[in-house]
Amino acid sequence: MAPRGRPRKKMVGSSRMDAALDAMKQFGFEEKLVQETVNELLDVYQGAWPFIEDGSYNLLIETILAKQEDKYLNTNIILISFTN
């Protein structure tokens, strides 16, 4: 049997998730938070990356910031209820 040619090498760091992580790194977001948020958005948009990648990951940034804001507000509400 004739050889099929060279096997393709998987390029490390070339996936869409890697690109999203690289883009969010400059904003200081934790890798775990970015991965979780991307996976949630992929579930919502049925695996459609263009919605996430559009506008330099604008949707991803807004979603992460909204999560952080909700977490901050919930923490403050709990603290206020304990102090009263």
Report on this model:
It comes from Arachis hypogaea (Peanut). This is WIYLD domain-containing protein. InterPro entries: WIYLD_dom_sf (IPR043017), WIYLD_domain (IPR018848). Pfam families: WIYLD. It is a single chain. By secondary structure, the chain is mainly α. The chain has one domain (17-83). It is built from three helices and no strands. It starts with 15 loop residues before the first helix and ends with a helix.
SS strand fraction: under 5%
Q: Which sequence of SSEs, written as H and E, runs from N to C?
A: HHH
In DSSP terms (H or I, runs of 4 or more residues), the helix count works out at: 3
Q: Please tell me what the overall shape is.
A: elongated
The main β sheet shows up as: none
How far do the termini sit from each other? 80 Å
- Rg, please? 19 Å
Note poorly predicted spans: none
Q: What is the count of structural domains?
A: 1
Category by helix and strand content: mainly alpha
Assign a percent range to the helix content: over 70%
Let me know the number of strands.
0
| Mean of pLDDT | 86
Domain WIYLD: 12-69
Organism: Arachis hypogaea (Peanut)
Protein name: WIYLD domain-containing protein
Pfam families: WIYLD (PF10440)
Brief summary of the model shown:
This is WIYLD domain-containing protein. The protein has three helices and no strands.
What keyword list fits this structure?
WIYLD_dom_sf, mainly alpha, WIYLD domain-containing protein, single chain, 3 helices, WIYLD_domain
Topology diagram in text:
Blueprint (H helix, E strand, L loop, with lengths): L15 H10 L5 H14 L4 H35 L1
